[in-house]
């Protein structure tokens, strides 16, 4: 036995056996481009990916945070419970409409609340 093998033995004991590793299926990634005047309504119309589990939102770098207005341009990463990752880019061709709380869906309200707190 070589000396370097002697130092590698304790580390090898901590590694899981190959049969014990869970079988991971590849995650499905979908890209959405929102380019209409009401991107939140467009998002709710296109959303058929399941219940969101995690939502990460990033406003356009030129956006100054405001508690009242939402940015016109933003990106969002939504992970669903079904294992789908949805990459959403909001790049409207014209000014956007601020969504009202009564007419937004679940995903749109999560994104809007994340943008307000970001």
Structural category is alpha+beta
What is the end-to-end distance? 57 Å
**In what order do the strands lie side by side in the largest sheet?**
1-4-3-2
Poorly predicted ranges = none
Q: How large, in whole angstroms, is the Cα Rg?
A: 22 Å
- Portion of residues in beta strands equals 15-25%
How many distinct folded domains?
Answer: 1
**Overall mean pLDDT:** 77
Envelope shape: globular
Helix content: 25-40%
| Largest beta-sheet characterization | 4 strands, mixed
Query: Helices and strands, in N-to-C order?
Result: HEHEEEH
Report on the structure:
With 118 residues, this protein is of the alpha+beta class. It has one domain (25-117). It is built from three helices and four strands, in the order αβαβββα. A four-stranded mixed beta sheet has the order 1-4-3-2, with helices on one face. It is globular, with a radius of gyration of 22 Å.
């Amino acid at each position: 036995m070589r000396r370097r093998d002697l130092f590698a033995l304790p580390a090898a004991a901590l590694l899981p056996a190959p049969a014990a590793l869970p079988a991971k299926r590849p995650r499905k990634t979908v890209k959405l481009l929102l380019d209409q005047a009401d991107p939140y309504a467009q998002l709710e119309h296109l959303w058929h990916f399941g219940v969101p589990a995690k939502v990460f939102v990033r406003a356009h770098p030129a956006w100054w945070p405001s508690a009242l207005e939402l940015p016109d341009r933003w990106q969002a990463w939504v992970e669903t419970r079904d294992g789908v990752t949805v990459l959403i880019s909001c790049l409207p061709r014209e000014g956007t409409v601020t969504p009202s709380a009564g007419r937004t869906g679940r995903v749109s309200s999560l994104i809007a609340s994340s943008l307000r707190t970001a």
